[in-house]
Write a structure and sequence with these properties.
CATH architecture of the largest domain: Alpha-Beta Barrel
Number of helices: 17
Number of domains: 4
Keywords: Cell wall, Membrane, Peptidoglycan-anchor, Secreted, Signal, Transmembrane, Transmembrane helix
CATH superfamily of the largest domain: Glycosidases
Number of strands: 40
InterPro entries: Glyco_hydro_66, Glyco_hydro_b, Ig-like_fold, LPXTG_anchor
Strand order of the largest sheet: 24-21-16-13-12-28-29
Structural class: alpha+beta
Organism: Streptococcus mutans SM6
Protein name: Dextranase
Family: Belongs to the glycosyl hydrolase 66 family.
Distance between the termini: 10 Å
CATH topology of the largest domain: TIM Barrel
Helix content: 25-40%
Strand content: 15-25%
């Protein structure tokens, strides 16, 4: 063979080999490319060799560290921003991403179980997250079942923070325990995702090498959301999971974060009171119990506390002495150790919260020497519950005087009580005064006390605002609020200088809806609405649950009292529904209390009556756990619930999948319905769904377990929402930005995107049809109206490719007559007209055929999945094999030609 021919053959063979190696390399790259296609930047962790012995751990760890692909040690805090954020301009808004509908990211219980070793659940680094992809009810049902199984297995994370609330610019220190529940020594990683509504802002990671069954609790400074990462007056949701080196999720949980320079914007108010263990006293020996409760309440994001009945007397509230007796309290002879109170105030301040000292605004205890002459008292205009006409207004218990009352217009009293409260708050380290009243009464000044002329009289509520404004002038450095019992005087108090608005509400009060008692969930909403409209503030509601009642011989007078005798607990759903009714309306239910009470069962107390130390019903672990999750929800979504949010004129309706209407009464005064109403804020709308199916609408539930308050859970609901005045193009855009969240166990504050359609009614107006997979107690649908920038995204590739199914479309409702409503007192008379307007036919819920604009994403519109990667990989392999065959054929031809020569 000639040298030039040999050289040509060598070159040809080298080319063939190069082509073969290149094409096969590309095939391998295509197979593995999905691991680099995630929507967020992941911190890659290399697991140690399986079966590593403990004796080799010290020598193995340096090698593991060197193998890390992040610029940190194995024990260091690791922070990673989203890839999508890295692609954006630094001044641009954070890229909007819908919350994942994977059950891995749905809510979990707060309680951690380190003694169990649940079956690990695979976390895919390349799970498919198509932006705004609608999720079918069937998929969500699977997620619900998986979440329920997770709770049964006990794989929930115990995540805490160093504060209940943060100032703008503060770093957030996270604390959690990493448990290696596997049989292998390996890296265990905590991943925390920070969400603002549907937007994922940041991803944080912390990794620790642990032996089997070993645990490690992070220390302050190791796992931190950096300072200046979060905006002021915003609620955030932190979604955390703990996984092993193979990305199997071991534990998971959700936690809200609040950044608020001013607690008055979103008050989350709780009480601290005496312990029944020691005759309603506040003693140093009970501080461990109080601290335990305050730690839980810190993690419930409580930002303000009401120190109830820790005063010596109404005119000498908190003297600078080691201990005092409450001599006016003849039923329990309580004692207060001032060092214990100061320690609790200090602990509250450490959490970032404020401490308010409770005291009456006009009272003098009957057993105390008068501090002012008789000329400064107020006198009854009429004979009644406060004594005879012409006598000093007096409050009595069992015909025994407890308090006398001074005239709020008296300059002498204004000077006296402002000085007394200033000294008391200074002595105890308090931040403000929680003022109380005994209610309203028609009264006379001393110089008119014998007059029967009504023109000489006045209502106490007529002068409360003037008194409060004088107190703020005299106590400018302290917060101030007043309990307007039943909230009936907001029109008189609207212009007062109160820092927050607090109402103690009772069923016997007159509803803001009109001439009816405020006994239903809807009456609570009406009062919250009224206060917001008058003041722009979020109402704090003292609504006490169940309130057991006994006669003098301890004979029960209601079902709640019979529950006490049976050593029963609060009815969990009764408490939660009242909290939900108030929060959904934009208020806050003050129900939680630190009482050092054995009935709390290691949890946090729940207020049952106006005298806070009395708690005779038990708090179950279930109620304590769910109270925790409701507080996370109220905090994480505070901007949707009460950030300048108003009632919406739109009238949404809720139906079953077969067309039966479940929403009957937008006012919420009737039970046996899905109470449905809409609210709107700045560039968003919400639809509140409260499940009252099969239960009554009374909020207090004095009947206890004799009145079941657990509603019938609903699935596969259809909610219609009219978009009157909105173009079809705008309706189509809005329909892609519809989400749902819930504090209940199936979501625990996670947010999911919903399947929607846009239809038109007979007037040509668009109507949004929204598919809701499940309703336990409370759901909130969130409709984002902002225009989001279209940012191209690299498709994410699933590890286990599967055909993407078309999302389920809400079933066309059938023509079914609405359910009759019991006790139909104020049902919307135009309900049938509204349904007709939506459908174009009288009582016919068939979807209109004029325009069926489905927003479901077709198979062709979805990004390429792993199936196409596999096809591309196979094609490259075929090309490589073909090149090899061509090369071989060429070589044989050369050899044959040489022989012929």
């Amino acid at each position: 063979m000639k040298k030039n021919e040999q050289r040509m053959i060598k070159i040809f063979l080298s080319s063939v080999v190069t082509i073969l190696l290149f094409t096969n390399g590309m095939a391998v790259l295509a197979d593995d490319s999905s691991t680099d296609m995630t929507g967020m930047s992941d911190v890659t962790q290399k697991a140690p060799a399986e079966g590593m012995e403990q004796s080799n751990r010290q020598t193995a760890e340096p090698a593991i560290r060197s193998a890390e692909t992040v610029d940190s040690t194995i024990n260091s805090f690791q922070e990673t921003d989203l890839k999508v954020q890295e692609k954006e301009d630094a001044a641009a808004a954070v890229q909007t991403e819908p919350a994942s509908t994977d059950s891995n990211e749905q809510g979990q219980s707060v309680s951690a179980n380190t003694n169990t070793q649940p079956q690990a659940k695979k976390l895919s680094n390349n799970s498919h997250q198509e932006p705004m992809q609608m999720v079918s009810a069937a998929n969500k049902e699977g997620a619900v079942l998986e979440t329920a199984q997770n709770q049964k297995n006990g794989n929930m994370i115990n995540l805490t923070t160093d504060k209940a609330v943060y100032q703008a610019g503060e770093a957030v220190h996270l604390n959690l325990t990493l448990n290696n529940t596997t049989s292998l020594a390996q890296n265990i990683t905590a991943t925390a995702e920070v969400y603002s509504l549907e937007n994922k802002l940041k991803t944080l990671q912390y990794t620790k090498y642990l032996l089997p069954n070993e645990s490690y609790t992070t220390q302050k400074g190791e796992f931190v959301i950096p300072a200046n990462s979060l905006a002021n007056n915003r609620g955030y949701l932190l979604k955390v999971n703990i996984s092993d080196s193979q990305n199997n999720i071991l534990e998971q949980g959700n936690r809200a974060i609040a950044v608020e320079d001013d607690w008055r914007t979103f008050p989350r108010y709780a009480a601290i009171g005496g312990s029944q263990k020691d005759n309603n006293s506040v003693l140093t020996k009970n501080l461990p119990d109080y601290y335990r409760e305050l730690e839980q309440m810190k993690n419930m994001n409580i930002n303000s506390y009401f120190f109830y009945d820790v005063y010596k007397s109404a005119t000498n509230p908190f003297p600078n002495v080691p201990k005092f007796d409450q001599s006016w309290n003849w039923w329990s002879h309580s004692q207060v150790e001032t060092d214990a109170v100061k320690a609790l105030v200090n602990r509250v301040h450490q959490t970032g919260a404020v401490a308010m000292l409770y005291n009456m605004i006009l009272a003098q205890n009957a057993n105390e020497t008068a501090v002012l002459p008789d000329t400064e008292y107020i006198y009854n205009y009429e004979t009644g519950g406060y004594g005879q006409n012409g006598q000093v207004m007096t409050y009595s218990i069992d015909d025994k005087p407890l308090q006398y009352y001074y005239n709020p217009l008296s300059k002498s009293w204004q000077n006296y009580i402002s000085n007394a409260m200033a000294q008391a708050m200074k002595n105890g380290g308090f931040d403000g005064w929680q003022g109380d009243t005994i209610g309203d009464n028609r009264v006379l000044s001393h110089n008119q006390k014998d007059s029967r002329d009504i023109a000489h009289s006045f209502m106490l509520s007529d002068v409360y605002a003037e008194f409060l404004n004088k107190m703020k002038e005299k106590l400018p450095q302290y917060y101030l609020t007043l309990n307007d019992v039943n909230g009936e005087n907001i029109s008189k108090l609207a212009n007062s200088k109160q820092d927050v608005i607090y109402n103690e509400l009772w069923p016997f009060g007159t509803s803001a809806l009109g001439n009816r008692p405020q006994e239903s969930y809807g009456d609570l909403k009406a009062r919250v609405d009224q206060v917001r409209q008058a003041t722009g503030k979020s109402l704090i509601v003292g609504a006490y649950m169940e309130e057991p009642k006994f006669d003098d011989n301890r004979v029960p007078l209601n079902g709640a009292a019979r529950d006490v005798l049976a050593s029963a607990t609060y009815q969990t759903d009764a408490v939660l529904l009242t909290t939900a009714a108030i929060a959904a309306a934009g208020g806050y239910h003050m129900s939680l209390a630190a009482l050092a009470n054995p009935n709390d069962g290691g949890g946090v107390g729940v207020l049952e009556t106006a005298y806070y130390p009395t708690q005779s019903l038990k708090v179950s672990k279930e109620l304590n756990r769910k109270n925790y999750h409701y507080q996370q929800f109220i905090t994480a979504y505070e901007n949707l619930l009460r950030d300048k949010v108003e009632n919406d004129s739109a009238e949404p309706q809720t139906f079953t999948a077969n067309g039966r209407q479940l929403s009957q009464d937008a006012l919420g005064i009737n039970g046996d319905q899905v109470w449905t109403y809409a609210k709107k804020g700045n560039d968003f709308r919400t639809i509140q769904l409260l499940n009252l199916m099969g239960i009554t609408s009374d909020w207090k539930n004095e009947d206890g377990y004799e009145n079941n308050k657990t509603p019938d859970e609903q699935t596969n609901l259809l909610v219609t929402y009219p978009l009157t005045g909105v173009s079809m193009a705008e309706a189509d855009r809005i329909a892609k930005q519809v989400y749902l969240t819930s504090p209940d166990d199936w979501l625990q504050s996670s947010m999911i995107s919903l399947a929607t359609q846009v239809k038109t009614n007979e007037n040509g107006d668009p109507v949004l049809y929204i598919q809701v997979p499940r309703l336990t107690l409370w759901n909130m649908i969130y409709i984002n109206e902002t225009i989001k920038p279209e940012t191209p995204k690299v498709p994410e590739q699933p590890q286990h490719p599967a055909r993407t199914l078309e999302p389920a479309i809400p079933q066309t409702p059938e023509a079914v007559s609405p359910l009759p409503v019991a006790n139909k007192q104020a049902v919307d008379e135009n309900k049938n007209e509204i349904v007709s307007a939506l459908t174009g036919e009288e009582n016919d819920l068939q979807l209109p055929t004029l325009s069926k604009r489905s927003l479901s994403i077709s198979q062709a519109e979805l990004p390429q999945t792993g199936d196409n990667n596999e096809t591309r990989s196979n094609l490259l392999k075929v090309i490589g094999a073909g090149a090899l065959l061509i090369g071989a054929a060429g070589l044989l031809s050369l050899i044959k030609g040489r022989k012929n020569d």
